[in-house]
Write a structure and sequence with these properties.
By secondary structure, this protein is an alpha+beta fold. The chain contains 13 helices and eight strands. Helix content is 48%, strand content 15%. The radius of gyration is 20 Å and the shape is globular. One of its GO terms (molecular function) is acyl-CoA dehydrogenase activity.
């Protein structure tokens, strides 16, 4: 079948064997915890997907990365969600790394040893600005001490490294957003049960608690972001990668539902354009921003981030419409006989729960359209 062929070809090119390994398991097994999907991702070289080739990774472009994520989402929604957190953390390290810096050594280890990064960036609390971390940081001599928790935190039980957003005061007392890189075996890190829903349980989204966790200062990257919540270049790049990879993964989940409708026993709907048009148009919007990221003449600025947000919010609407139409096309007996259709519809709809939520961005987007800098709500 031609549908998803391009994405699955990209997945096979960059992570050979992963699609077949995922297809060998029933969806219910992949979405449980522990899931065999995470081990298959490691075995295929997945952790190094965005690590530069010079450091031993795959070094794929944003365009190829979103195609890979869509293919992964079509096989295993939990893996797409979990690996989005890993990939965008890696992309941030790539963006910030300078020759010979500690970040380069970490990136080389990620590619060589298949290390997985869990992302403890601020999200998941209603009314909380996502650039205001839940984890505190204070200096203690040449060390930085971390306290707090992140919930949910994907890959919490499989992580090798934790990337955490923190607020760190400079010499003038000004608090700035920083990113700490912490080995998972560091004393003071504890993983506690948190995720109670069976949907996306395979992403290992539990609570990670940090109590007096010490890291070297050189493993804490300080940005220029302060309390005004206006992202700097590094944060803008991080949001770009996050929104695109996340959206592509969830479009993959919706695409799995479309694929089932197109191949259902007894024949597919006579007119396939309804569900196809929805997910394909949404993916084209994602790919448009991914192509722009590779354009050396296109700055990674507020305008591009707004384009990524528009692609993401349009995908939310497309997923909602597609899920309804596909479940109707599959019919009542398919609903009665299997949980797969309803599971995929529920999982795909979770895109709307990730930051920055559309409702919280209404004001900042209005301000941006009126000529002010983009704030992240």
């Amino acid at each position: 079948m031609q549908f998803l062929q391009r994405e699955r070809a990209a997945l096979e090119t960059h992570l050979p064997g992963l699609d077949a390994a995922l297809a060998a398991h029933p969806l219910e097994r992949l979405e449980s915890t522990p899931s065999p999907a995470i081990g298959a991702f490691r075995a295929a070289g997945g952790p190094g997907l965005l690590v530069p080739r010079a450091l031993g990774g795959k070094g794929v472009s944003a365009l190829e990365a979103v195609r890979v994520q869509r293919a992964v989402g079509a096989r295993c929604p939990s893996l797409a969600v979990a690996t989005t957190m890993h990939h965008f953390s890696v992309a941030g390290l790539v963006r910030s790394a300078s020759p010979g810096a500690p970040e380069e050594q970490v990136l080389a280890s990620i590619a060589a040893d298949g290390l997985l990064l869990a992302s403890a960036f601020a999200e998941g609390r209603a009314g909380q600005n996502i650039l205001k971390p839940h984890i505190t940081a204070r200096r203690r001599g040449e060390r930085v001490v971390l306290n707090g928790s992140k919930m949910p935190c994907s890959l919490s039980r499989s992580m090798d490294l934790l990337t955490a957003s923190v607020l760190l005061a400079d010499e003038d007392g000004v608090e700035r957003l920083a990113v700490a890189l912490v080995p998972a075996a560091t004393p003071g890190i504890e993983v506690r049960p948190f995720w109670r829903n069976t949907v996306l349980a395979g992403a290992e989204s539990e609570e990670v608690v940090l109590t007096e966790v010490e890291v070297d200062q050189e493993m804490v990257l300080v940005t220029e972001v302060t309390a005004d919540a206006v992202p700097d270049d590094l944060n803008t790049a991080g949001f770009l990668w996050f929104e695109l990879l996340l959206t592509a993964g969830y479009l993959g989940v919706a695409s799995a539902l479309v694929e089932r409708a197109l191949t259902k026993p007894g024949g597919p709907p006579q007119d396939p354009t309804g569900p196809l048009a929805e997910v394909e148009a949404a993916m084209l919007a994602v790919e448009s921003v991914a192509r722009a990221m590779a354009d050396r003449l296109q700055p990674w600025d507020d305008g591009l981030l707004v384009a990524a947000l528009m692609a993401r919010y349009a995908a939310e609407d497309a997923i909602a419409r597609t899920s309804r139409s596909c479940l109707a096309a599959l019919g009542g007996m398919a609903f009665v006989g299997s949980t797969e259709g309803s599971y995929l519809a529920s999982a795909a709809g979770a895109l709307g729960f990730h930051p920055p939520a559309r409702a919280r961005m209404a004001g900042p987007l209005r301000e941006y359209l009126d000529g002010r800098p983009l704030r992240i709500g």
